[in-house]
Automatic annotation (TrEMBL):
The keyword Mitochondrion does not apply. It holds the Pfam family PNP_UDP_1. Belongs to the PNP/MTAP phosphorylase family. Residues 25-266 form the Nucleoside phosphorylase domain. This is Purine nucleoside phosphorylase.
Length: 269
């Protein structure tokens, strides 16, 4: 049975002209909403007008759903997200991603601002995610019923989509790294000891989002790709001592390259 909240939200956006088909949906992270402004034939609707959609409470995150054409492809753009640390609910983005599924979106591209644990990917770098480590103790599927909740996570970040990201980056002349993202619940930044632990477990990046959305997307049967914008070195890495203002400034500075990469990626879908 479809989720009633998702059905209501989907009916609402359809009544505002958001019918498909779509080639992809994009979720923008902190200060990374530039791509929404590049849409042609853009249609926009505030999250506050869609039943069940969250109200992002973090500066640097909008709260608007957009539809339009990007590089000749029709896309949905979720400008801004809500985080688990805002309410304690890891499934806070369930309804928006369920709407993407209901509208026939085949692929979800997630973006985020992240801290780096590796010297090669310093502030301003773009990193395609190859896998993740959930260090939060949370899961957006807690409380779901039925066997569908037992989703496999091998290959959660689609290899073909990641290859397309690298091809687009090469054509754009943008260096694109690849790495594993560790999800901490936040909202406090990680301690140097936590970062040392994450590095020993195999993490290249740390952040406070993306992982629950990737899990939900796989639950809904969507393919997933993800890009981190490195805004700082993580705590204890070099002079890493992250602050939210630093995150917003660095993300905004890298947003142009991210938007160009997304253009190139979407054009190849």
């Amino acid at each position: 049975m479809p989720d009633a909240a998702i059905s209501l939200a989907a009916d609402t956006v359809l009544s505002h002209g958001f019918g498909g088909p779509y080639d992809a949906a994009i979720v923008t992270g902190t200060a990374l909403g530039l791509v929404a402004g590049k849409l042609e034939d853009r249609l926009s609707l505030a999250y506050s007008e869609i039943p069940g959609f969250p109200s992002p409470g973090v500066t640097g995150h909008g709260g608007t759903l957009h539809a339009g054409r990007l590089s000749g492809r029709r896309v949905l753009v979720f400008e801004g997200r809500s985080h688990a640390y805002e309410t304690g609910d890891a499934a806070v983005m369930k309804v928006p991603l369920g709407v993407a599924k209901a509208l026939g979106v085949p692929l979800l591209l997630l973006t985020n601002a992240a801290g780096s644990l590796v010297a090669q990917a310093g502030p301003g770098s773009l990193v395609a995610l190859s896998d993740h480590i959930n260090l939060s103790g949370l899961n957006p599927l807690i409380g779901e019923t039925g066997d569908d909740r037992f989703i496999p996570m091998v290959g959660a970040y689609d290899a073909a989509a990641r290859k397309t990201l690298h091809e687009a980056a090469q054509d754009c002349g943008i260096p694109l790294h690849e790495g594993v993202y560790a999800w901490f619940s936040g909202p406090s930044f990680e301690t140097p000891a936590e970062i040392r632990m994450a590095g020993r477990l195999g993490a290249d990046l740390v952040g406070m989002s993306t992982v629950p959305e990737a899990i939900l997307a796989r639950f809904f049967g969507l393919k997933v790709a993800a890009i981190s914008v490195v805004t700082n070195f993580a705590a204890g890495i070099g002079d890493g001592d992250p602050h939210h203002d630093e995150t917003k400034r660095a993300a905004a500075a890298a947003a142009f390259d991210l938007a160009r990469l997304i253009d190139g990626f979407v054009a190849r879908l």
